[in-house]
Design goal:
The protein is about 35% helix and about 15% strand. It has about 350 residues and is an alpha+beta fold. The strands form three sheets. The chain has a five-stranded mixed beta sheet with strand order 6-5-4-7-8, with helices on both faces. A three-stranded antiparallel beta sheet has the order 1-2-3, with no helix packed on it. A two-stranded antiparallel ribbon has the order 9-10.
């Protein structure tokens, strides 16, 4: 399947029943056609109408479960409910709250809604393998998140420090319009202060306990590829980033809001969106859960141009597949993920 349902009506037409959902799972797992896990022979399997999640080998009779090892494993919910859930979670910009989720999917118990949502969120918490940056510069900055606890006023004691890193890419290479900018804003109106029209690439966000160099350096090393150009407003010591193997591009004049915006435009847009999402959709998030929400935000952000990839990933198919890299997607070289080698153990986290 190369198309992506762009409306709820189209989604219903793509996935009208259990068998349609099962065929989609099958296609993603075996893009070149089914191959039996037991006898390794290719060929059309038997598909039982009464058990859409099971494929039976036409040679040896071995039965393969389509949902084994995925977040849907062992669930009593029909596949199409999971598909709706994954679709809503990946396409609704603000994400979903449990109550809204339960109502929209007509789930009988709020526990069911909570568990499904939780499992979907777990499927988003997949560490990326490679650092961002490389040939693209990275904006690195920090922000305080939260703090508007009801009845207690705003205070720093309820705020959590978050560090973020985002790639900056020229707009010409990016597919489609930039969802970071308010609708109606003229393209030429937003230039990154470097004479070019730019767009946010991949994002990383991390909760940190404070401004210790150790933590900041650990984040940089985990998030940003070696030798990348890293832009900051000077809050990280120049020596430290250079020591770690980055080309540091600090802003020399601190405290000037306009110059800071021009130097780090993308990460500030991201922080603004994050704040609006946490407060608007979730009415604030407690510090201990914040990282899970950051992961959800980053997951959707990094896949915003490829909703079908996000949709497939969140059904946890990606844990058993080698997902295409961001660049491969940009260049359109791999429309489909490459399946893991047959017989490999299936990761379940
Ligand atoms: Zn077989």
């Amino acid at each position: 399947m190369h198309d992506y349902p762009k409306t709820l009506l189209e989604f219903q037409q793509f996935f009208p029943d259990e068998m349609a959902c099962a065929r989609h799972l099958e296609h993603i797992r075996w893009p070149e056609g089914f191959e039996c896990m037991a006898c390794r022979l290719p060929g059309e399997p038997w598909r039982l109408l009464s058990r859409p999640r099971v494929l039976e080998c036409s040679h040896c009779g071995y039965q393969t479960s389509l949902t084994a090892g995925t977040i849907m494993h062992g669930s009593r919910q029909p596949l199409h409910v999971w598909f709706w859930a994954a679709y809503l979670v990946t396409t609704q910009t603000p994400g979903m709250r449990a109550l809204q989720f339960q109502k929209q999917l007509g789930l009988g118990r709020d526990e069911t809604a909570f568990q499904m949502l939780h499992k979907l969120r777990v499927a988003m918490v997949r560490p990326e393998r490679d650092g961002i940056g490389g040939e693209w510069p990275v904006e690195l900055d920090e922000t305080w998140v939260g703090g508007a606890t009801q009845g207690e006023g705003r205070g720093r004691h309820h705020k959590t420090l978050v560090v973020g890193a985002v790639e900056v890419r020229p707009r010409a290479k990016a597919p489609g319009p930039d969802p970071n900018l308010p609708t109606g804003q003229a393209k030429t109106a937003h230039r990154g202060g470097h004479g070019r029209s730019i767009i946010a690439g991949r994002l990383r966000l991390q909760v940190v306990s404070g401004r210790s160099q150790k933590e900041l350096e650990a984040f940089a090393l985990a998030a940003v590829a070696p030798n990348s150009v890293v832009r900051t407003d000077g809050w990280i010591g120049d020596d430290n980033l250079t020591k770690l193997g980055y080309r540091h591009d600090p802003l020399s004049i601190q405290g000037d809001q306009e110059k800071t915006e021009a130097h780090l435009p993308m990460i500030h847009i991201v922080f603004g969106n994050l704040d609006a999402w946490l407060l608007g959709s979730h009415h604030g998030v407690s510090p201990k859960h914040l990282q899970a929400y950051l992961n959800e935000f980053v997951f959707r952000f990094n896949r915003r141009f490829w909703p079908m990839v996000a949709f497939d990933s969140v059904l946890n198919i990606a844990t058993r597949l080698e997902a295409p890299t961001y660049r491969e997607l940009y260049e359109g070289k791999r429309a489909h993920p490459i399946p893991a080698k047959p017989g490999q153990p299936v990761p379940t986290g």
